[in-house]
Amino acid sequence: MTSPDPRALRNAFGTFMTGVTVVTAYDMDGSPIGFTANSFTSVSLDPPLVLVCVANTSRNYDALVQAKGFAVNILSENQVDVSNTFARPVEDRFSAVSWDRGPVGAPILKDVTAWFDCTMHKTVDAGDHVILIGKVEGFEQTDAPGLGYARGAYVTPSSTTDALEATTNLAVSALIERAGHVLLIDDGNGGLGLPECLVDGEGASSAVNKLISDVGLHTQPGFIYSVFEDVDRKRQHISFLCQSAEGEPTKGAFVPLDKAALLDVSDPAILTMLERLADESKLGNFGIYYGDQSTGVVRPVSSGQRA
């Protein structure tokens, strides 16, 4: 049996939607350390145990396996910047956030959804990671909705729902991708485009599910891939990335994500979005575009274990 392709396996792991945490502790010199991780889970209620995984290559590895304890901070959905801060190689990550010492002493971040301050119960070697099992000595939760993560992108259900409900004249498109190909249909103007419709009173989720059904495929809407203002058409546009679609389309066809195959896409904004998807798919990392139909920013996110 051959070993699985690491990139393909990582992408498959990434389909499991998780919360986003920042794991914190102190190094041997007493300085606070921390890293963003989605490899967190509860283990036991009696005794109260949780675990996180740390890559053997992490610069925090030695400090964490020797630490007397650690804290797990579950981020709220307005803390994407905190997640990014602790995912990047920044020397003084804690200078950018507000934090206090927990009851056991580990750094506790402010405004998180919940936190768990733990003593070290056990460490377990596991392949290219070490599992840290902590005994919960103190914890606190709030009503703040949690930040999600799946397929290389952040998921903010509460904020997204609020934004959609507050938007009028909203168009939704289904960016349906499969094995490096994207579904394009006749846009009615002599060119090709994405399945698209205006959102009615049933909401954006219902609209994108209807688009998927109308082209005869079976998949679920993924995360929001692009949010932009279409000034010329006087509407807001949201595109959902939908991956691993099954079945044969009853409308349109899947075309390769390369420049030659995309020449017939008539909408420049959609063409730019598809070219970005082609580049990001090669790396397995995705971003979310914010702006208008011609200028904006892409907020990149890292995928997988970050330490």
Give a short summary of the structure:
It is built from 6 helices and 21 strands. It is of the alpha+beta class and 307 residues long.
Write the layout of secondary structure elements.
Blueprint: H1 6-13, E1 18-19, E2 21-26, E3 32-37, E4 40-45, E5 48-55, H2 61-66, E6 69-74, H3 80-87, E7 99-101, E8 107-109, E9 114-126, E10 129-141, E11 148-150, E12 153-155, H4 157-165, E13 170-178, E14 181-186, E15 192-193, E16 196-198, H5 204-214, E17 224-230, E18 235-243, E19 253-256, H6 268-283, E20 287-292, E21 296-300
Describe this structure in words.
The structure is a single chain. By secondary structure, this protein is α+β, with helices and mostly antiparallel strands. The protein contains 6 helices and 21 strands. It has helices spanning 6-13, 61-66, 80-87, 157-165, 204-214, 268-283; strands at residues 18-19, 21-26, 32-37, 40-45, 48-55, 69-74, 99-101, 107-109, 114-126, 129-141, 148-150, 153-155, 170-178, 181-186, 192-193, 196-198, 224-230, 235-243, 253-256, 287-292, 296-300. Strands 13, 14, 15, 16, 17, 18, 19, 20 and 21 form a 9-stranded mixed beta sheet that branches. The chain has a 7-stranded antiparallel beta sheet with strand order 3-2-6-9-10-5-4. The longest helix is centred in the last third of the chain and has 16 residues, at 268-283. The radius of gyration is 22 Å and the shape is elongated. 35% of the residues are buried. Mean pLDDT is 84; it is low at 301-307.
General form: elongated
Rounded radius of gyration (Å) = 22 Å
Order of helices and strands: HEEEEEHEHEEEEEEHEEEEHEEEHEE
Identify low-pLDDT runs.
301-307
User: If helices are DSSP runs of H or I spanning 4 or more residues, what is the number of helices?
Assistant: 6
Largest sheet at a glance?
Answer: 9 strands, mixed
Report helical residue fraction. 10-25%
Structural class: alpha+beta
Instruction: Kindly estimate the percentage of residues that lie in beta strands according to DSSP.
Output: 35-45%
How many β-strand runs? 21
Mean pLDDT value = 84
Cα separation of the termini: 31 Å
